[in-house]
Amino acid sequence: MRRLFATAVPAATVAAIALLGSAPSASAAPTHKPDTACQQAGMSVLKGLGLFSTVARDGLPISLAVSAGVTPRAGTDVASLPDPLPLSVVLADHRAGDQSLFIYPWC
Questions:
Q1: I need a surface site. Which of 18, 58, 60, 74 has the fewest CB within 10 A?
Q2: pTM
Q3: How many domains does the chain have?
Q4: Residue at 58 is within a domain
């Protein structure tokens, strides 16, 4: 019994070391900081229109965003996007800065 335990411990140790070795290092951190100010401004616009909870639940119709002054960035294929856009996608797009799918007038 003792021999089986002695064999299992090194295997578990090797697995733990391998797992730690595959974790990204601190130097692999993203070089770009998300634009949370733009995201906060977009949330404020939705709240000001009384639409935040509706968009959080049902998504944001692209036509509504366009009517609020949002424009697709050059190269964005709007037809390939889900409509309505889930709030998580809208918020992530706001944080994307110059890499976003849309240009927001409040950013």
A1: 74
A2: 0.64
A3: 1
A4: yes
